[in-house]
Amino acid sequence: MRGRWTAVLVTVVLGLTACGAEVRPGGDTGPAPVTVENCGHAITYPLPQRAVAYDMSSTEKMFALGLAGRMRGIVMPRTAEPAVARSPYVADYRSVETLSTDVLSFETVVGAQADWVLAGWNSGFSEARGITPAKLDGVGIRSYQHTESCFNYGDRPVKVPPLEALYTDLRQIGQIFHVPDRAEALVADLQARAVALRANAPAGEPARVFVYDSGTDQPFTSGNQAAPDTIVSLAGGRNIAGNLDARWTTIGWEPVVRAQPEVIAVVDYGDRPVADKIAFLKSFPPLADSPAVRENRFHVLDYGEAVSGPRNLDAAEKLAGYLRSLGR
């Protein structure tokens, strides 16, 4: 009889191990921790139980993977609120508690008793504001930084093209939350759409596109390490700031004027109404002779589509359609 029960126990243990479960002292079981490389560091993650995401980039990566029900809450700055209302994930947003409408803070995360935080370096995590992966790790809270933002992180920055960075994040978040099949299916769909866009790219010289986020004295735009550079490229255009090895960055007006943009893609979020941004660009004398202003070629890029996330392909497809409508 004893041999029979021993055999049953061995079978159960083997079955749990085969399913990725870990048998711990005392007989407790649960998913085995997962180790992934993030910003050049191998980090081991137990399955998060109280996840917090910052801003739309983090939040919509979680939602796209079907993880809304496994989140403790989100931190969403007020400037993003209009874009949240337009998001296809608005029902998910409503189902998860908003912990703060300010920037990400150490106090908010600790107060929420979070065990895992998803954000970007200098777009959430910040040395100056006292919320870093190292500080959170010191109180038992794991972190994951957007791969795109590893370009600005630490002494040995990790440089990954924005689209590959997005795929990496989706796959690794899928591993951490033990939903790798969902992640692979989502990435496969995004990859297929990117291939289709490239296959249908117009012949000839790409349209010159200026990505305008904000700024009057100096414009804030996207270099080649942020999602809009890939969005413009997939759409069949050329980002006029694509020669800059930077993420979101401030430049002077002189290179914009010299580039003579044919299209201006204006990022729409709550810092200033998009109509006011376009009105400024139309009235700005140095740009008056640019093809974009002369021909009234302004394309609105939704904030939720412009930051690294699953809707980057939506943005590229819309911009591609706009460029085609111009005969480009």
TrEMBL record:
Coiled coil: none annotated. Residues 1-20 form the signal peptide. It comes from the Bacteria. Keywords: Signal. This is Iron complex transport system substrate-binding protein. It comes from Amycolatopsis thermoflava. InterPro entries: ABC_Transporter_SBP (IPR050902), ABC_transptr_periplasmic_BD (IPR002491). Pfam families: Peripla_BP_2 (PF01497). PROSITE patterns: FE_B12_PBP (PS50983), PROKAR_LIPOPROTEIN (PS51257). Residues 50-328 form the Fe/B12 periplasmic-binding domain. Belongs to the bacterial solute-binding protein 8 family.
